[in-house]
């Protein structure tokens, strides 16, 4: 049983998942710091109040602390915007640049009889043995 457990732990996908969780937590701390230390002060400079947690209203003796909710919404939107503009957009641009190359020449063509893929230089289909016209 210990041998199976060790094999389970040393499997690639378990280790990859563990690394992803650790990197994700570290990245979350970086993004949270970006929002708390840079984006929130910018919002505070524009609006004039950096912390809304003291905002409340009362109805029939019940106190509604909508300021904490407002802080959470602003934090969520700020984090989502930071992740989108500083991670998603640059990664998408990098992927586009990697993809934008010459299209690869096809090395196969379809047999008109059985629709299987055969090499372009083939004169006869290996699957249905029908004769093929020369490739253009």
From TrEMBL:
The UniProt entry, under Gene3D superfamilies, shows: Large-conductance mechanosensitive channel, MscL, domain 1
TM ranges are 21-48, 68-89
Predominant localisation class: membrane
> Which InterPro entries does UniProt cross-reference here?
Mechanosensitive_channel_CS, MS_channel, MSC/AndL, MscL_channel
Kindly indicate whether the keyword Translocase belongs to this entry: no
What is the membrane topology here?
Multi-pass membrane protein
Q: Which GO terms describe its molecular function?
A: mechanosensitive monoatomic ion channel activity
Determine the domain of life of the protein's source.
Answer: Bacteria
Tell me which Pfam families the record gives.
MscL
Its Gene Ontology cellular component terms are: plasma membrane
The places in or outside the cell where this protein is found are: Cell membrane
Q: Is the Membrane keyword given for this protein? A: yes
Which keywords annotate this record? Cell membrane, Ion channel, Ion transport, Membrane, Transmembrane, Transmembrane helix, Transport
Instruction: Indicate the family of this protein.
Output: Belongs to the MscL family.
Subunit description: Homopentamer.
Function text:
Channel that opens in response to stretch forces in the membrane lipid bilayer. May participate in the regulation of osmotic pressure changes within the cell.
- Protein name per its UniProtKB record: Large-conductance mechanosensitive channel
Query: Which organism does this record belong to?
Result: Capillimicrobium parvum
């Amino acid at each position: 049983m210990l041998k199976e457990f060790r094999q389970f732990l040393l499997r690639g996908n378990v280790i990859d998942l563990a690394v992803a969780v650790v990197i994700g937590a570290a990245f979350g701390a970086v993004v949270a710091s970006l929002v708390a230390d840079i984006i929130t002060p910018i919002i505070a400079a524009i609006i004039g109040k950096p912390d809304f947690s003291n905002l409340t209203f009362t109805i029939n003796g019940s106190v509604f602390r909508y300021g904490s909710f407002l802080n959470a919404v602003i934090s969520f939107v700020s984090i989502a915007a930071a992740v989108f503009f500083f991670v998603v957009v640059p990664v998408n641009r990098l992927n586009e640049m990697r993809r934008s190359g010459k299209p690869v020449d096809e090395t196969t063509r379809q047999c008109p009889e059985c629709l299987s893929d055969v090499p372009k230089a083939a004169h006869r289909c290996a699957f249905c043995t029908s004769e093929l016209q020369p490739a253009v």
